[in-house]
Amino acid sequence: EAGVAQSPRYKIIEKRQSVAFWCNPISGHATLYWYQQILGQGPKLLIQFQNNGVVDDSQLPKDRFSAERLKGVDSTLKIQPAKLEDSAVYLCASSFLTSGGPDTQYFGPGTRLTVL
Amino acid sequence: AQSVTQLGSHVSVSEGALVLLRCNYSSSVPPYLFWYVQYPNQGLQLLLKYTSAATLVKGINGFEAEFKKSETSFHLTKPSAHMRDAAEYFCAVSASNQFYFGTGTSLTVIP
After folding, report:
1. Residues of A at the B interface (Cβ-Cβ below 8 Å)?
2. pLDDT tens digit string along A55-98?
């Protein structure tokens, strides 16, 4: 079974530039998550999709971050414009169940973003 | 609201020694609890999870954790550390359809 795929693995941009990350979840997984992991901290949930609908985006900085999952499969997370404090690893995860509960999340390798 | 506290951001043990990584949680509803491991430059991998069945949960790679409601704890243990156990370990709580991670504990295994 293929795991969660993410690209690119690394990205370096200057502040005020835009950047996009892509995630392809495990086939058949209805729920998709984007996390931000700042160095030395645990992952922080940015947004959670169930199929192509948003379940939770309460911690997404909506003035600069956006995410979509148009066909309920792969997803894109965008930052526009980027700030220095956005430097982090962006993790994508997916899970099978369509509702909350003791569902196992499977994580991709992450995209390491450096904003200069 | 839910939260997770991991005591000790860095833990060092000798190879063959007991591993104990501490996790305390706060939850207003019965929680589901998880331990994940993150190896360098890799994503998080599930070690084990508590889902209100048995309080002692066995996971992969010889790890186990015990849910203690009275202490609001879910500490991770392994009887004998291996060099390959060196990694970052995250405790997480899921309740009310929300998921929160702790700040992580970096485990170093000394040969």
Report:
1. 3-4, 33, 35, 40-45, 48, 55-56, 91, 93, 99-110
2. 889 899 999 999 999 888 999 999 999 999 999 999 999 988 75
**Strand positions, DSSP E, chain B:** 3-5, 10-14, 19-21, 24-26, 32-38, 44-50, 56-58, 64-68, 73-78, 87-95, 98-101, 105-110
Residue A70, by phi and psi: left (phi above 0), alpha (psi -120 to 50) or beta?
alpha
Inform me whether the pLDDT recorded for A23 exceeds 90: yes
Count of positions (residues) in chain A: 116
Average pLDDT, consecutive stretches of 10 residues, N- to C-terminus, chain B (111 residues): 89 97 88 91 89 87 94 96 96 80 95 94
Which of B54, B62, B48 shows the shortest CA–CA distance to B18? Answer: B62
